[in-house]
Design goal:
alpha+beta, 8-stranded antiparallel sheet, 5 helices
Length: 176
Amino acid sequence: MLSFSSLVFSWRMRLLSLKNHKFTVILSIVLLFAILLFGPPVFKESWLDPFSTLNVPNRELHPRAINKLGMINSDDPFLPLYYTNEALIQELMRNLERSTPLSSSEPALLALENQKIMYFTLHREASRFHVEEDYALQYYPEKGIIRFGRQFFRINEASIYTFSQIASGMTTGWWK
């Protein structure tokens, strides 16, 4: 067992070995303090790479922030449904990244008037980065088209499959 004096002597000798590397040690300490001081305020979700889902900036709609989905089917508008499985919701958000925008003159958009519509609500809970907010998304299952805001997008087969999985696993009611 080492005595206290030998422990102090051991640490003193280690510090003396750093004497030859003064510049490196001082630079490391300054860098560490700078990271601790400026790191947390600088980091915000909106500073990450832009999220390309539905051509919406990352600061508005971040995929990892969406944790609940609500749905109202046009066939039965008085029966609200919700879904909370975050793994499948994140998979849907990743699949929506690969959606392709449609121009307003596409013939597929003209045939949407009498189609079945599923109204989805993407729910984002409040955090220190953003406030609680809901985003509306309209899904036309027969055409494989979604409407987000004023834009229309064609989704891929993985998104269609994920939408069908989510729709079949929804719970009656609304989240609290």
